[in-house]
Amino acid sequence: MTSPNPSWKPGDTVESPVGEMVEIDPASVSATDMYKLIIGSIVPRPIAFVSTQSPDGQDNLAPYSFFNGVSSNPPCLMISVGTPRPDFQKDTLRNIEATNEFVVNSANEWLIEPLVHSAGEFPYGVSEMSEVGLTPLDSVKVGPKRVKESAVQMECRLLKTVQIGDGSPGSSTVVFGEIVFVHVDKNCYKDGKIIFDNYRNIGRLGGFGYGKISETFEIPVPKIR
Ligand SMILES: Cc1cc2nc3c(=O)[nH]c(=O)nc-3n(C[C@H](O)[C@H](O)[C@H](O)COP(=O)(O)O)c2cc1C
Questions:
Q1: Fewer Cβ within 10 Å of end Cβ, the chain: N or C?
Q2: Domains of the chain from N-terminus onward
């Protein structure tokens, strides 16, 4: 694929379809409407398929799309765990706070139906991994199991949590994890790089929408200095 405007050069303007704006002050809309605006605008979001374990060894698995990498030295990623209602803590956060460990498994096309199913509110202690027919594998450096069917599995240790908001619905706990071990499917890895055509990762959009990475193109960054 070529890039959208391959003939563009420095000094050119762009043809933009952007016109009249709707102005939104977060102070004047509900947390639910802000949530819809954020998840519809910040797209596509990668999905962390997060496996954790309770202190007594019960497996837990759930998807989180407020997710990204944040640094490579130390290798670090983040997920953000929301508060859907007052005094309610998601199992993933409860387990991470109790054990300091989790695994981020990739969300590949072939996993998307069980991945979405695992987001159902299963009671604490129920293993979504077996509920959705996925295979737990022992990790190397952490206690929580990894998902055999995911093409990349990142074993993480908790670095820190940051509370955003006061615990009311819509507020979140951001979890930063140091990546301490990585497993990558050989078919998806060559010369130190991920092969996207085989990796086939899914992105989350707004509402119940998801997207495949079906068209890619490359544009090198210029060397200015
Ligand atoms: C694709 C997808 C992405 C999600 N992303 C998030 C997220 O970033 N943060 C969050 O708090 N909940 C997110 N959810 C909802 C959680 O997966 C859901 O609340 C789940 O029940 C949490 O499970 P747990 O209690 O086992 O951690 C997402 C759901 C789906 C289907």
A1: C
A2: 30-208 (2.30.110.10)
